[in-house]
Amino acid sequence: MSDAHIPLHALKGRGAATRLAHRFEREQRGAFDDGWGTLEDSEKDQEEASAPQTEVRFEDVKSAITRNSSPDIYFDYGLNPYRGCEHGCIYCYARPTHSYLNLSPGLDFETRLIAKRNLAEVMASELLAPRYEPRLIAIGTVTDGYQPIERELGLTRAAIEVLVRCRHPVAIVTKGSGVERDIDLLAPMAAQHLAAVYITVTTLDGELARKLEPRAAAPYRRLRTIRMLAEAGIPVGVSVAPQIPFVNDDMEQVLAAAFDAGARSAFYTVLRLPWEVSPLFRQWLELHYPQRADRIMARVQDMHGVSDAQRQSGKDYDANFATRMKGTGLWADLIRQRFEKACARLGMNRVRHEPRLDLFRPASLLGQASLF
User: Fold this and answer.
1) Residues 229-247: pLDDT tens digits?
2) Is the pTM of this model over 0.90?
3) How many Cα neighbours within 13 Å face the side chain of 30?
4) Is 19 exposed, middle or buried (CB count within 10 Å of its CB: 0-12, 13-18, 19+)?
5) 53-272+333-352 architecture in CATH?
């Protein structure tokens, strides 16, 4: 008898291929050939099994608004109606948060979701607190507020309705076309400099997007969302994040298409690989781009300033606040130059939209209030 490895297979509609053990687990499980043909049966079962179904669990939260203390993040407050994200983006830096729930950052992150059903009520009580100071609230900074289950549950919309009532500024980052549903709320807010939306378009290549972000809106659909938001008078920007060397190399084309659709601001980050994201991304590369997997990982390591000695010890990423978002070194500098030149050529980022804080009226949450 000998140790054996069950080959991985990509799962249709899912980014991860396994329920990778999280970093707090004490036991690791692997395949073992017992000589009775069970290994072959396991391979067959894995090939024939359908992609796992999405499960939603509800929770009542004690707090809604998160405070940001990271010096490299532009917003002060965050709001996330869900834990986990069905979009299944393999590169998502939020995947390791599922480890705190004793769930896998792999398949569990995109199939075992948690909905914060009392989020709007808790947020309203926090906004009413005497010591609360209004700052821009960003929705979708950890998991997407417009992932598929939002169509049914409407937790993101409920939160925006609270912000509308008290005239609190909000910025939304999403890959979901579902944000179009809430234009009726966001357009009046935008008219008073209280709302902006940023649509992430990682690539214009539909086939690549289906592999990277299997349940997010298609690239052409996101461009249509940008156009609809812009036509409604809502300041809209585009996020071309993350940049992954030798994977999504069409940054300039994405920026041009987004500008044509109405986006007037843009930002990017490079691929980040914290905790379990690193082995998950390596699995993804072996499944989809095995011929260039080593080349891609070498450039990612270069981009994060990982030394040869660190690579030998298995390190792929440096979480230093000063460099984790944009990287460091030659490859990071090339990406920065491409981004800046493309934005300058198009006229992106010429106007900065500052949210208004002086309109905040928390007392309106105590009684009936109209939109504006």
Assistant:
1) 999 999 999 999 999 999 9
2) yes
3) 7
4) middle
5) Alpha-Beta Barrel (3.20)
